[in-house]
Amino acid sequence: QVQLVESGGALVQAGGSLRLSCAASGSIFSINAMDWYRQAPGKQRELVAGITGGGSTNYADFVKGRFTISRDGAKNTVYLQMNSLKPEDTGVYYCNVVGRATLNLRAFNSWGQGTQVTVSS
User: Which residues partner with 35 through β-bridges?
Assistant: First the structure.
């Protein structure tokens, strides 16, 4: 089973920066996509940014120009650099990884437990 561990969430003032990390472990053969989602209080979970195994990226409109997603393929780790943070960025950020496990090349879709990001005004 593939496990995800997120880190980097913290309390930060508006305008500040944070970098989130998500490390995938387990019997991984390949990763097709690594994504960051967030869920603000009282709102639905939403996609923040994603990166494919080939390096293609996509961002939600509300973070373009402020956030950057990147990956380290050798470490099976995805990062989210968050700059110019706003109070509305507050929420729990979740990592999602889609790929294939070594055993029988079985597809997997794993979620982390989430890391809290709080942006004060």
Answer: 50, 96
